[in-house]
Write a structure and sequence with these properties.
A mainly alpha, B alpha+beta, C mainly alpha, B: alpha+beta, 9 helices, 20 strands, C: mainly alpha, two-stranded antiparallel ribbon, 12 helices, globular
């Protein structure tokens, strides 16, 4: 910065301003760091401490936590309910995210390739992305209504074509799948937008070259479109996967973890442990495990992003 | 290999007419260059041959086969794009191999052999395994050419692929393309806005303007006998000298008058003006056809003044040299003529100094006469 | 010819797929409105009535007139707006610093670290905050939720604003310095006008996230201060879920985010995808 001012008559003034401004960056960042410390980092560290403690039975007030080492973590990994919730998480985070990303990719490419009318294209894009703007809780409530076992419109429509309705939310795998359908309805827009943006940035003359070179549609997709969008598709998947760690609202409203505990996901389980049983230490241990998993995913995402960006430059 | 025949090609984009009524016939094994200013319809014509555009009207045939409505995949063509359109995520090898892999009937080994052979021809061997985005502009150009030449298509198309290169590289690649084209007797259609490139490369030039073909012919014909005033001014560098004259005929004497300047025409030239539509005649002389003289030509027939005439069919313009631009062994001299007009001439290097006064003279046979001042004015002689 | 036929077949398939998915995407939105316009008795009948036979606006009247329903929307408005103002203000300043003085303030690492705090499940934060808020009497207050919502909005606004500032070349400011402007004047005259679209998008996005929040509100508030998300799960009358009122509420509360998406689509998309894509 100093080299800019050196040859100019006003140089001393500029230098002075810049040297006086040495504190400016810290003043700008300071309030944010402070707030984040007070409302996030601090509580998180406290949570970490809590995860090594036990609360006296029946005592709700914040007093006399007893240090118990890794007892809560041991409890966690041996708890069948937790393990079941992790299995559910794997199903939701694996199949659900895959479904969203695959569907979003197909929609994006279909939209880009087969809808020439601009107004229609923007209209469909908006329709597919508008559920993203809904509160997840509201989206869950809407799908709960659609999936009602008696009188719900999904079973109602099945009934009118002579099929027997099912209890969409009344069993473990179907329940999780129904939640997944609702979640896909809400979030398919994210991979869609990412892939659509990526496809739009690919040069049109490259596709003309492929046509001239005699490539079939399938070969064009397999050798040209997909390899160049693969990174973005992975990024979209990671972004969605990170949200799975926090998944709560739809589960809360649609099944409440039920029937029984069949559809519980880890975050929901943590809520029950913490705020229904008031086993604060165990809940804290659980949330820290989840948080670290999520941060690792974010780290992978970030690393992936920088290698991708490094590679294309 | 096959010839290409285009009949009455018309392409409209909404209300814009890109090509109006283009007909041309490119022979088997010929290198045809479509040349013209931007917006003249040359790229649209090329893209129609490729099948990337569907004509509004007209037909395109490869040999006897009508391909007008075939998509590019079904035409046996290859093409080098203006921005090259390489596949950025692939290596040089994969880019060149791509068209062969699309054909689906070549073995791995055959593909490798074909790619390596064309890579040798175009000096791409050293970076076969590098990704194309890591290559320099010139290297990318070679890859694009190799990708197009790796097959033996019926028609080979090039859309201004050299326009972004530096002069040296441009010349080198041009001559390589011409060499390969001659060796393999490829039917090639090349598009450029650079008239010099067109003249150096083409077996035949197709000069286009405003969506129509205005002249077709070998480079010498186009250069020496431009069909329209537009062609005379577009082809040739430095640009042709133009004198807008009025025709005067008196007692067997035919004179073209440009302000204070008048040119007495030889009988041959005078006769060619019989078909003129009016009094307005544009007289053009290429700078290369002017030579320098210290003094006015001798006047034998009449005393028509010293400010320029050519009784024996010679044209002469009194000028003052203003600027000399060196272009190697020759100089372009920019002179101030009578009426303040600028006149250009090309002379041997170092023969003139700035400020010199004298005459630029040209033989009548080198004069081009056009029927009017409009760019569509037709050639008379 | 063969390739042309294949092309049109694929195109038809693509259009059909889009049509089917468009129906799937639109149906829940339509059904929300449809349910909101029916009297309670004609909801969940068999066969389903695909459109309301008579328009019953009483659910909407209830949403807008009932003190609990309308009050919850006002609570949500206050909290979302409050937290948005704070997080955009602080986040812009920090984002600017991270963008322009990156190394001095820890660069990529610190901003990444900030964003990573957003990845923890909200429960992890709310466990201790539940007690802290007890001491400071922040439970069931607007201020309490405004503060809590900073936990997810402040990292977001910082990250996004950094991204938007990064897109403005520093040479613009240098040119202004050379022309004799103070850093503040350079910011106001050169940087701010260029970053404004990004700032608006960030603001809108932060607002929508706060508007839609449920779990903090559910645990920390819900009595004196009850954002609409805490009302949606409850509306039950003698064991009957009041679907028409819930869906009327859903219609009303999804209007603002929908309008925001339509108005700021391009920039919102960039924000939603954390700057991965520009559409």
């Amino acid at each position: 910065m100093s080299t800019i001012g050196e040859n100019l008559p006003r140089a001393p003034a500029i230098k002075e301003r810049l040297s006086n401004g040495r504190l400016i960056p810290y003043l700008l960042v300071g309030p944010t760091i402070l707030v984040v410390f007070l409302v996030t980092i601090g509580p998180l560290l406290w949570s970490l401490w809590l995860s090594f403690t036990r609360w006296k039975p029946g005592s709700i007030a914040f007093q006399n936590p007893e240090f118990t080492g890794v007892e809560n973590f041991v409890w966690l990994v041996t708890n069948e309910r937790f393990i079941a919730s992790v299995v559910n998480f794997a199903y939701y985070g694996g199949v659900g995210v895959l479904l969203q990303v695959a569907l979003g990719t197909l929609l994006a490419l279909a939209l880009y390739n087969h809808v020439e009318n601009r107004v229609l294209r923007v209209g469909l894009l908006t329709l597919f992305t508008v559920p993203m703007m809904y509160a997840p809780l509201v989206a869950g409530r809407i799908w709960q209504l659609l999936f009602l076992p008696g009188g719900g419109v999904v079973n109602g429509l099945l009934g009118t074509v002579g099929l027997t309705g099912v209890g969409w939310l009344n069993s473990r795998w179907l329940g999780l799948t129904s939640i997944m359908i609702a979640d896909t309805w809400q979030w398919v827009g994210l991979p869609l937008l990412i892939v659509y943006g990526g496809r739009a940035s690919l040069s049109e003359s490259m596709y003309e070259a492929a046509r001239v070179d005699g490539a079939s549609r399938w070969m064009t997709f397999r050798r040209i479109t997909f390899p160049q969008l693969r990174n973005l598709i992975v990024i979209a998947g990671l972004l969605r996967f990170m949200d799975a760690y926090k998944f709560f609202d739809k589960l809360f409203i649609m099944t409440g973890g039920g029937p029984g505990t069949a559809t519980e996901l880890p975050t929901y389980f943590a809520y029950l442990v913490g705020f229904q049983n008031f086993n604060i230490g165990q809940a804290a241990a659980l949330t820290w495990v989840l948080g670290l998993g999520s941060v690792v995913t974010l780290f992978l995402f970030w690393r992936y992003m920088s290698t991708v960006q490094g590679g294309t430059n | 290999m096959t010839g290409v025949t285009i009949e009455n090609l018309r392409k409209e984009y909404g209300s814009i007419v890109a090509t109006n009524d283009v007909s041309l016939d490119i022979a088997d094994g010929e290198l045809a260059v479509l040349v013209g200013p931007s917006g003249c319809g040359k790229t649209t014509t090329l893209r129609s041959i490729a099948g990337l555009e569907t004509p509004t009207d007209g037909t395109i045939a490869f040999g006897d086969a009508d391909v007008t409505n075939d998509p590019p995949q079904d035409r046996d063509i290859s093409m080098v794009f203006q921005n090259l359109a390489l596949y950025p995520h692939m290596t040089t090898f994969d880019n060149i191999a791509f068209p062969l892999q699309a054909e689906n009937n070549a073995s791995e080994a055959e593909i490798r052999e074909a790619v390596e052979s064309i890579a040798r021809d175009l000096d791409c061997e050293d970076f076969l395994d590098q990704r194309v985005v890591e290559l320099s502009g010139g290297q990318q150009q070679r890859v694009a050419l190799a990708r197009a030449l790796v097959r033996e298509p019926e028609v080979f198309l090039m859309d201004e692929p050299f326009s972004d290169l530096d002069e040296l590289l441009k010349r080198k690649l041009r001559s390589e393309v011409v060499r390969l084209q001659h060796e393999r007797e490829i039917t090639m259609v090349h598009v450029t806005h650079d008239q010099e490139e067109a003249i150096t490369m083409g077996d035949r030039l197709v000069v286009m303007n405003g969506g129509d073909v205005v002249q077709m012919g070998d480079p010498d014909t186009v250069f020496n006998e431009p069909a329209e005033l537009f062609v005379a001014q577009f082809i040739g560098s430095p640009q042709i000298n133009r004198f807008d004259c009025t025709l005067e005929r008196t007692s067997g004497e035919t004179t073209l008058r440009n302000g204070d300047l008048d040119f007495s025409l030889s009988d041959d030239l005078a006769a060619s003006l019989d078909g003129a539509g009016g009094e307005e005649i544009a007289l053009c002389v290429r700078p290369q056809h002017f030579s320098w003289a210290e003094r006015a030509p001798e006047n034998e027939s009449d005393g028509n003044g010293s400010d320029g005439d050519g009784s024996n069919g010679e044209l002469s313009v009194p000028v003052t040299v203003e600027v000399i631009e060196k272009i190697g062994t020759e100089d372009v001299v920019r002179c101030r003529g009578p009426n303040g007009s600028e006149v250009l001439a090309v002379v041997a290097s170092g023969t003139l100094d700035e400020g010199a006064e004298g005459y630029l003279r040209a033989e009548g046979a080198n004069a081009h006469l056009f029927d009017g001042y409009d760019e569509h004015a037709e050639r008379l002689n | 010819m063969a390739a042309a036929d294949r092309t049109s077949a694929v195109s038809l398939l693509g259009k059909g797929f889009l049509l089917v998915y468009a129906l799937f995407a639109a149906f829940p939105i339509y059904w929300t409105l449809n349910t909101a316009l029916k009297p309670l008795g004609s909801i969940n009948t068999f066969p389903p009535t695909l459109y309301p036979e008579s328009l019953d606006l009483s659910s909407f009247t209830w949403v807008l007139m009932n003190s609990r329903a309308a009050g919850s929307i006002i609570d949500s408005l206050i909290i979302a707006s409050g937290t948005t103002v704070l997080s955009v203000l602080l986040g812009s300043l920090a984002g600017y610093a991270f963008s322009r003085y990156g190394d001095a303030v820890g660069g990529e690492d610190v901003s990444f670290w900030l964003l990573s705090t957003r990845m923890f499940p909200p429960i992890a934060i709310v466990l201790p905050m539940f007690f802290v808020f007890g001491w400071f009497n922040l439970q069931d207050t607007h201020l309490g939720l405004i503060i809590l919502y900073l936990t997810f909005n402040l990292p977001l606004t910082t990250w996004l604003m950094r991204d938007f500032f990064d897109k403005i070349p520093y040479s613009f400011e240098e040119a202004a310095y050379v022309d004799g402007y103070s850093p503040f004047a350079a910011f106001r005259k050169v940087v701010f006008p260029l970053v404004r679209p990004g700032l608006i998008a960030t603001t809108m996005l932060a607002w929508v996230f706060a508007w839609n929040e449920f779990i903090f509100a559910f645990i920390i508030a819900g009595n004196d201060v009850a954002p609409y998300t805490t009302i949606i799960p409850t509306l039950v009358l003698s064991n009957q879920i009041l679907w028409n009122r819930i869906m009327a509420m859903a219609v009303v509360v999804t209007i603002p985010p929908t309008l925001i998406l339509i108005a700021f689509r391009r920039h919102i998309v960039e924000g939603m995808t954390l700057g991965v894509t520009e559409l």
